[in-house]
């Protein structure tokens, strides 16, 4: 048989040929933009060696293998619940992680890290001077208008000595390559830098998609940076074993998911402004055990919103007296209010000279060339060369004549726009800077099986530690979807990618946040649960139990519609009572024939337009869970998302009548899995007590409602049997009684049986046990009001006789349960003030 000369001799050689062909095609088709530095193609026009290692591995996987890895990464994003929110949008978006990482060599990274550490130290020294002795202003090195003209200059912080001696503790800087291929600083971030949490999540997702490649390329790890940052915050506190809080603006923040992840990853207490209170010049967290001292706050709330007494009076994100606590030195901050001053573009034009003055060094990472128009000579220079400059706000992104954009290039404006902007600069030049037009360099992006150059910017993070500034060996990289971009935000179309710093040898850096030695004392202190977290855990438990109750009614309705043989009262009574209960709960509304029962069942299960439907209630449970996500395991969150998705899909494509029962069964199985996770995996501390309290409270209330609906007004055997099904007690009943369902035995099992985990009496025993275990505000040995109500109701149920129960007495139990729920809320979930009287407060810890 003849053999073609160019044909491979065997399958292995054929595979190698295909791999080489793919790699060659990727390189040949990759066309960097003229005059713009590129990460893949070096100045010599050849691919960089470290990129070739990555691309060779991808080529070896084949197209299908690569796509499978990328699909696994996408699933991981959904499983982890990594999201973000665009400003103005209510719904969160899935995290847009790009397929390829940004690669940096160790030698290049060392230069970047040294420049970032130097810049962080310089900015910290500037803040010390500006808010302290103000030598820079008084000696003419820095114009007063650059300081006082900034909205981020927080006057109440003047003269304050920061606890721990640092104005900056967490700093970020956006950088990009200049036309010469060297890195330039595009902007500083010191107010409340975001992106570090997303950088960790990007790493976890991509490293899991390509684990062997990650190891072979000796990628530097991130955990050591966060361990050092945490140690730096702890060292700044004035007490041993400090309470460190991450302060969030709340669930509507654009980066709330990141803040939740960071709090969970670092073990910090996630708090909102309403969780905080000041007393005697100290900052405290409102907890279910009263006010507890906050020693360190890593804030993600802008300074102007921290204290409505001394800053923005309209703020609901901060706490009155916050600034006073800082002035008194009772709380360490990361970063101090007022640190955002160094983000101004106006300051950038003075940094080269200030670096020489304060540190005796030149900037290792130069700025984009910047001219502040508050100076006559610089203003004239910008107006003279207006068309070739980018004009931006000196103290933010809003300035007259910029058409609502962060910056405008003179040559791109029409005559009227140009005249308006020039007039604004002449009238009030201090509000503007002129900058060299920056055209971002490019990095390879994966585009439908090919490589395409895309502009990017890179955010690097630095943390103050007892050993000095430490720089994260990686960062947060944003990639534009447009080929020509000057600035990138995480809006529609933009992506983010992981940043790999390629080491010369296997990384010796930590892979976890565990300390490197064994000198950590063993403790079993459960910690103190913030009132807001307890509130949301309680309602999460209630909503999940409410969804289960609704789905149980839907299942009961479907079963009865399948079993019914006639329209007699015995057959119709349980169906009518199921439907009536769904109407009363707001889960559905009466529908006309045909098939009204099936329509009602489907609506109650999956129609979010009805506030009592299972889908709507699951949505409320998920919203409550999202606020306390740092306290939930990844498995719990995934099950919640799966449950919501399953009910949503049923509404999008209504199932056939037999499928409604299957949908309901699967949803109940997911709820059972959630309940099992809560029972088996939730640590038995206050958080678990409140989620179980909510579950028990809701189950007891719903069971009373089931009993009133199905055991009143001459119930048939079929109605009582439906009641036993709703409380999952049919097997127990049949094992005890040979006869069919009778009223008194059914009510006893449903309401009074202390051994039935679905009865009201069983719930009250568990509720009373939880309340007994929770901390008291006052150590005087007396029962608090909510505990007295629980003990009284528990005793009533234990002494009750099922033969004397009727709808009126069941309703009375239900009303007492509702009163107990209100008492629990008033005691543990009060956010407006300390619930303990001033003369009886326990010692503030």
Automatic annotation (TrEMBL):
SUPFAM superfamilies to which the protein is assigned, alphabetical: Glutathione synthetase ATP-binding domain-like
Domain DUF403: 529-829
Transmembrane segments: none
Residue ranges annotated for the Circularly permuted ATP-grasp type domain, each copy included: 101-480
Protein name: DUF403 domain-containing protein
Native source species: Methylocystis iwaonis
């Amino acid at each position: 048989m003849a053999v073609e000369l160019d044909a491979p001799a065997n399958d292995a050689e054929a595979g190698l040929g295909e791999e080489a062909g793919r790699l060659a095609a990727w390189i040949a088709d990759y066309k960097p933009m003229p005059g713009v530095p590129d990460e893949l193609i070096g100045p010599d026009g050849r691919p960089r060696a470290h990129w070739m290692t990555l691309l060779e591995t991808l080529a070896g996987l084949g197209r299908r293998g690569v796509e499978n890895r990328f699909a696994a990464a996408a699933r991981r994003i959904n499983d982890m619940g990594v999201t973000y929110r665009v400003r103005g949008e209510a719904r969160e978006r899935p995290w847009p992680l790009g397929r390829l990482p940004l690669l940096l060599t160790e030698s290049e990274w060392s230069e970047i890290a040294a420049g970032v550490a130097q810049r962080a130290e310089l900015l910290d020294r500037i803040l010390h001077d500006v808010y302290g002795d103000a030598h820079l202003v008084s000696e003419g090195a820095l114009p007063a208008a650059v300081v006082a003209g900034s909205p981020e200059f927080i006057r109440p912080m003047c003269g304050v000595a920061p606890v721990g001696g640092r104005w900056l503790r967490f700093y970020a800087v956006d950088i990009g390559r200049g036309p010469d291929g060297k890195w330039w600083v595009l902007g500083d971030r010191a107010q409340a830098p975001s992106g570090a949490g997303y950088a960790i999540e990007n790493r976890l997702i991509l490293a899991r998609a390509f684990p062997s490649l990650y190891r072979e390329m000796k990628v530097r790890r991130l955990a050591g940076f966060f361990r050092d940052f945490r140690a730096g915050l702890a060292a700044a506190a004035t007490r041993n074993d400090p309470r460190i809080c991450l302060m969030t603006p709340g669930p509507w923040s654009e980066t709330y998911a990141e803040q939740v992840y960071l709090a969970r990853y670092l073990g910090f207490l996630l708090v909102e402004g309403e969780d905080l209170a000041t007393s005697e010049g100290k900052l405290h967290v409102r907890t279910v055990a009263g006010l507890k001292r906050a020693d360190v706050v890593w804030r993600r709330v802008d300074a102007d919103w921290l204290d409505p007494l001394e800053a923005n009076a309209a703020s609901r994100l901060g706490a009155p007296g916050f600034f006073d606590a800082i002035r008194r030195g009772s709380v360490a901050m990361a970063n101090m209010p007022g640190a955002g001053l160094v983000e101004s573009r106006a300051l950038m034009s003075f940094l080269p000279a200030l670096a020489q003055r304060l540190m005796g060094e030149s900037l290792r990472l130069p700025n984009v060339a910047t001219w502040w128009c508050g100076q006559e000579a610089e203003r004239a220079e910008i107006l003279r060369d207006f068309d070739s400059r980018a004009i931006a706000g000196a103290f933010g992104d809003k300035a007259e004549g910029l058409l609502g954009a962060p910056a405008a290039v003179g040559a791109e404006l029409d005559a009227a726009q140009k005249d308006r902007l020039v007039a604004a600069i002449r009238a009030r030049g201090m509000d503007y800077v002129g900058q060299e037009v920056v055209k971002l360099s490019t990095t390879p992006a994966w585009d439908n099986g090919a490589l395409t150059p895309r502009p990017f910017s890179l955010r690097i993070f630095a943390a103050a530690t007892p050993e000095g500034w430490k720089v994260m060996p990686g960062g947060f990289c944003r990639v534009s979807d447009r080929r020509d971009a000057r600035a990138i935000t995480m809006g529609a179309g933009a992506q983010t990618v992981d940043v790999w710093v390629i080491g010369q040898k296997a990384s010796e850096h930590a892979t976890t946040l565990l300390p490197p030695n064994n000198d950590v004392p063993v403790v079993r202190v459960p910690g103190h649960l913030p009132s807001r977290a307890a509130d949301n855990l309680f309602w999460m438990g209630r909503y999940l139990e409410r969804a289960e109750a609704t789905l149980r009614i839907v299942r009961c309705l479907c079963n009865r519609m399948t079993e019914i043989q006639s329209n007699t009262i015995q057959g119709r009574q349980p169906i009518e009572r199921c439907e009536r209960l769904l109407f009363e709960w707001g889960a559905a509304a009466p529908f006309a024939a045909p098939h009204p029962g099936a329509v009602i069942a489907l609506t109650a299960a999956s129609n979010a337009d009805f506030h009592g439907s299972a889908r709507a209630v699951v949505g409320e449970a998920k919203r409550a869970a999202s606020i306390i996500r740092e306290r939930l395991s990844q498995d719990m969150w995934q099950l919640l998302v799966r449950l919501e998705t399953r009910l949503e899909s049923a509404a999008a494509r209504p199932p056939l009548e037999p499928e409604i029962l299957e949908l309901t069964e699967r949803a109940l199985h997911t709820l059972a899995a959630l309940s099992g996770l809560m029972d088996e995996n939730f640590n038995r501390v206050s958080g678990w007590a409140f989620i179980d309290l909510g579950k028990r409270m809701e189950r007891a209330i719903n069971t009373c409602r089931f009993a009133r609906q199905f055991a009143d007004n001459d119930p048939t055997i079929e109605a009582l049997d439906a009641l036993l099904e709703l409380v999952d007690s049919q097997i127990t009943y049949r094992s005890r009684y040979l006869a069919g369902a009778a009223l008194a035995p059914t009510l006893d099992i449903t309401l009074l049986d202390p051994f039935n985990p679905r009865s009201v009496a069983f719930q009250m025993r568990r509720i009373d046990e939880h309340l007994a275990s929770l901390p008291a505000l006052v150590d005087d040995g007396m029962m608090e009001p909510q505990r007295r109500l629980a003990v009284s109701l528990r005793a009533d149920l234990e002494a009750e006789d099922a033969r004397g129960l009727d709808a009126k007495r069941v309703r009375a139990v239900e009303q007492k349960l509702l009163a107990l729920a209100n008492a629990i809320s008033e005691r543990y979930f009060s956010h407006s003030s300390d619930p303990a009287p001033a003369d009886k407060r326990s010692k503030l810890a």
